[in-house]
Every structure is written in C-alpha cells, then in structure tokens.
C-alpha cells in the first residue's frame, strides 16, 4: 500500500471503531467534514474517500444539507422464516410503524396480473404503504390483492399487519411464498416516499403469496433502502 | 397524470417493448439520445428521465462515453439450489468465464477470521477472481480458504470451479451454506475490476461454506453488478 492508501485505511478503521463503540451523539451525526479532516490531519479528498468507503459498507449515510449520520443497524430479513414486518422489527428490538399512502381499486399492470395469475387488464386492490423502523422510512411497498378474496378490505384499518387482517377477517393464511429479489435503483415514487435521491440504490423484493389452499392471493412490490436490511439464509 | 407524466409513460412503454422485441442491434446499443428525443418528439430532459426509469429497472445500462445499451437478461441465483457459477450459467443458456486476479497467502481481516472461526490475525489463502457472463464482467469475488484443508491449492488451475477442485483433489464437499446478502455500493477494487464507476450499486453476498463434516472450510465475498442477477427463492 502507498502512503495515501495507508492514511485511508487508518481513517476508515478509526471511524468504524468509533461508530461501533457508539462514540457519536444519540442522533448519530458525525462531526463536520472540516472537523474530521483536521482530526485526522488529512485532506478533504482523502477524508471524503474514507467516508465513501464507510457509506458503501452501509455504516454511515448522508442527508442532503444535514451531513453524515451513523446508519442504524440493518434489519435481518430471512425469507425462510415466516414473519410480518412489525413482528420482525419487534423480534430484533426495533420499533416499527406503518403509514398508508393510499388504498384503492385500480387496473393492474401486466406484470402484476401475471404474478396474480389474472387476465391482463384486471381490476385489483392496490394498497401503498410506507414502513418505518425506529422512525426512519426504510420500505416503500405496493400491495396488490386479488379483490375476489378481500371484499370490503378498504374499510379496514390498513396501518397494521395485513397478515393478521387476512387471518382474522377472511380466515386466509399464508401458504407458499415466492421471493424475487433484485438490486435496483429507486423509482421516483419510491424515492420521494423514502426521502432519498431518485436513482438511489435499493433492494426490490417481489413477494407472491399463496394461501392455505394454494391460491395466489396477493403480491407485494417492496422497495427497501439499500442500507436498511440484510438477507440471511442458511441452507442445509 | 399530467401531460409530461403521460409522455414519460408512453416513452418507457415503447422502449421496453422494443427491447423485449429485440429491436436493437446485436450489440444492444440504443440510438443516441438526440435521435431518441426526435423519435418521440420530446425534450432531452423527459427522454433522460425515461432512460433513467429503464436503467432503474435494469433494462438498460450506460457505458461511459459509449452511450446506452440493452442489459443482458439477469442470471437467476437460487440460494436453495446447490450450483456453482459455471453450471448455473450453463443451465440458463449463458456462457461463463473466470479470470484469476491473484492468489496468495495473507493475513485475514477480523471479519473474515470470524466467518472462518479462526483467531484474529490468522493466515488464510485468498483467491481473487473476476467472473464473466457472456463476456461481461458481472462478479468480483474474494475467496478466503482455511489453509489447513487446502494444502498446495495455489499450484492448481484456479480458473475453473473450486467446488470441483475441492471434490477431486481434497475429497471435500459442500455441506451447510450460510448466505448473507446486502445491497451495497461497490468498493474501489470491485468497481475497477467490474469496469463500472466507483460507488455503483451492487449486491454483496457473503457465503460461508461448511463441508460434509460441518467444518467451516471457506467463505466467499461476492460483489455482483446490480443489474446482473436476481435472487429467486420459493418457500413452502
């Protein structure tokens, strides 16, 4: 390694350790770039490269005009474990909230019709929600429901778990689930909802859900902030 | 929708359909932005927004100073199916190649030592490889092997499957595997190898592999181009 790479490695290591040790304020804001450059006796360029490395690892993130912040721990998402969003957060000692953006009948796109095994141009129920972990919006999700199975659901409280609502009101329980996960860039709708720049990286997860009778009941298009989760799968 | 959103939707739909129909040249290069603006009688701004949408979906990608290209189909990666890179590509009608960047003994990072259940500062074998699908570099991978099990492996041909080499030379076969998948941004090393801009989005997959006797034998740190794969998991 040459000298500048050594400096870079030293800064990355020192900052990673400070983050791990909880050295920054409760809000998790880092000192200014100027203060950090002085602290490490380095140039802004080298400092920014170090910050970029930590950002790439998801350890810190930048907010427009506010500076750098320590990323909260990622949520562990295990597709082999059946768990809904609120339960998953709670099991990991985190707080979860759900906000309904809108909910209505609409004509589904061809992609959604294919997932739901419906003819092209079918009417479906679309519920758009924004989900928070510890007050930070991390997941923008569009749920598409086959309306045949969920009559009157638009009158229900849609801020809590759909899993629970399906069970209590319709006696419908999840059976087989298919996950399709694609690293992607955020669409305009998703980035606006998540309050990050359009084109930011994201993980796009499509879940297609069947019920206890193996009928396809709904599909979810989930856009996750790239630094908000990791997928953990163990295979025997 | 307002008028500009309608135009945008029309352009996205028309271009998606042309791509699906294979309308572009074998190399997959799109016409210039100027030609496309004229074709759709729209402004550069709207056209670029449409191209950005298609890029976000992974349908097209941009090469520095060369323009826009149609993305090859994503490779399907199913962590529940045991298949090595070359076999996976072949099963999907694609060609695969592997290039060894370097291979040597080194002192492992703390993260790698933890994965391999070795004491901090242990010596390991590190093999860095670049993997191609249909001539495009899509995966930069660092393999870390516990040297206890793989004596003399650095003398072998490392351009083919390690899975096969483990079996034929060491009678070691994969057992349990743990996958940890994290959307991330590319590090400098990975982006240089993959010939994309540093900080480009990527999927970072850590595989920790055990053998038939449940010993941790190696771990792979895989950096995938974000538009090169999708993960497909079906859960009963």
Automatic annotation (TrEMBL), chains A, B:
Every HTH gntR-type domain range: 5-73
InterPro entries: Bact_HTH_transcr_reg (IPR050679), Chorismate_lyase_/UTRA_dom_sf (IPR028978), Tscrpt_reg_HTH_GntR (IPR000524), UTRA (IPR011663), WH-like_DNA-bd_sf (IPR036388), WH_DNA-bd_sf (IPR036390)
GO biological process terms, semicolon-separated: negative regulation of DNA-templated transcription
Transmembrane region(s): none
Keywords for the protein's UniProt record, in alphabetical order: DNA-binding, Transcription, Transcription regulation
Keyword NADP: no
Stored Pfam families: GntR, UTRA
Record PANTHER family: MANNOSYL-D-GLYCERATE TRANSPORT/METABOLISM SYSTEM REPRESSOR MNGR-RELATED, TRANSCRIPTIONAL REGULATOR OF 2-AMINOETHYLPHOSPHONATE DEGRADATION OPERONS-RELATED
Protein name: UTRA domain-containing protein
Protein species of origin: Rahnella contaminans
């Amino acid at each position: 390694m040459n000298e500048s790479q050594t400096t870079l490695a030293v800064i990355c290591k020192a900052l990673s350790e400070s983050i791990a040790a909880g050295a920054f304020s409760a809000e998790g804001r880092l000192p200014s770039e100027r203060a950090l450059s002085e602290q490490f006796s380095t140039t802004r360029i080298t400092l920014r490269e170090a910050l970029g490395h930590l950002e790439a690892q998801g350890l810190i993130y930048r907010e427009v005009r506010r500076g750098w912040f320590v990323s909260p721990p990622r949520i562990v998402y295990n597709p082999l474990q059946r768990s809904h969003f609120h339960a998953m957060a709670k099991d990991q000692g985190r707080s979860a909230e759900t906000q309904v953006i809108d909910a209505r009948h609409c004509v589904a796109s061809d992609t959604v019709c294919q997932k739901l095994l419906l003819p092209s141009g079918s009417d479906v129920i679309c519920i758009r929600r924004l989900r928070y972990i510890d007050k930070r919006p991390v997941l923008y999700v569009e749920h598409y429901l086959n309306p045949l199975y969920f009559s009157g659901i638009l009158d229900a409280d849609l801020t809590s778990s759909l899993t629970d609502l399906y069970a209590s009101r319709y006696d419908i329980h999840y059976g087989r689930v298919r996950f399709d996960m694609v690293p992607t860039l955020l669409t305009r709708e998703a980035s606006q909802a998540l309050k990050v720049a359009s084109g930011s990286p994201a993980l796009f997860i499509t879940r297609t859900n069947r019920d206890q009778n193996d009928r396809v009941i709904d599909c979810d298009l989930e856009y996750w902030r790239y630094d908000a989760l990791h997928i953990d799968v163990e295979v025997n």
